Amino acid sequence: QKEVEQDPGPLSVPEGAIVSLNCTYSNSAFQYFMWYRQYSRKGPELLMYTYSSGNKEDGRFTAQVDKSSKYISLFIRDSQPSDSATYLCAMKAAGNKLTFGGGTRVLVKP
Amino acid sequence: DAGVTQSPTHLIKTRGQQVTLRCSPKSGHDTVSWYQQALGQGPQFIFQYYEEEERQRGNFPDRFSGHQFPNYSSELNVNALLLGDSALYLCASSLGADDSPLHFGNGTRLTVT
């Protein structure tokens, strides 16, 4: 079983809809949680970086962390065609080694 | 403000050959990490360099080695290439060896034939 599980998708939504993404994990030592966006032929771009359980909001993006359930989520409001990309969750314990999920491909249709 | 830059962008090698990939960290960053991303998968941690030393290593064989220079730039070397080494190799930089966010470059696409 992988340490971090993420549905590969693809997840197809109409423009303006809310995109809901999530990951589950098994390692209780993970303390820091991130979401990255990756466009085709590009490197991952950091969207959200959180430490504690709870919600964090940045513009159209909201990240949720539930450490008791080992479950993290990312919500994208008012989705745009430019949000079409692969979204990667990542997490780490102390230090800087990231463990990634496999990524969810998202397609926002005009 | 220059982000993380990697060279070359694409590379084709033959089985058994050796390859060197290069990375310049984001301005102000002193730590470099390398990741391997196979097609359709998430990145896998190879190793991290801080203060010119390898600080952490993932589950990769000794064929994978690296170096960090005094200006914080880094190289990834892979010897005796296998077909399975074909992947996108990503460099990420951060400030300090511990808990700051990682910023990634656009990677080097390595194809082994």
Name the beta content range of chain A.
Answer: over 45%
* Helical content band of chain A: under 10%
State the secondary-structure class of chain B. mainly beta
Quaternary state reads heterodimer
Q: Describe the largest sheet of chain A.
A: 6 strands, mixed
> How would you sum up the global shape of chain A?
globular
Termini separation of chain A comes to 37 Å
State the low-pLDDT regions of chain B, or none. none
Count of individual beta strands of chain B: 11
If you compute it from the alpha carbons, what radius of gyration of chain B comes out, rounded to the nearest whole angstrom? 13 Å
Class by SSE composition of chain A: mainly beta
> What is the number of E strands of chain A?
11
Percentage beta strand of chain B:
over 45%
- Please, what is the average pLDDT of chain B? 95
Largest interface: A-B, 25 and 29 residues
From the N-terminal CA to the C-terminal CA of chain B, the straight-line distance is 37 Å
Rg result of chain A: 13 Å
H and E string of chain B = EEEEEEEEEEE
What string, H for helix and E for strand, traces the elements of chain A in order? Answer: EEEEEEEEEEE
Q: So how many helices of chain A?
A: 0
User: Which of globular, elongated, flat, extended, rod-shaped describes the shape of chain B?
Assistant: globular
Can you tell me about this structure?
The complex is a heterodimer of chains A (110) and B (113). By secondary structure, chain A is mostly beta strands. In chain A, 0% of the residues lie in helices and 55% in strands. In chain A, strands 2, 4, 5, 9, 10 and 11 form a 6-stranded mixed β-sheet that branches. In chain A, 36% of the residues are buried. The model of chain A has no long low-confidence stretch (mean pLDDT 94). By secondary structure, chain B is an all-beta fold. Chain B has no helices and 11 strands. In chain B, strands 2, 4, 5, 6, 9, 10 and 11 form a 7-stranded mixed β-sheet that branches. Chain B is globular. The model of chain B has no long low-confidence stretch (mean pLDDT 95). Chains A and B meet through strand 4, strand 5 and strand 10 of A and strand 4, strand 5, strand 9 and strand 10 of B.
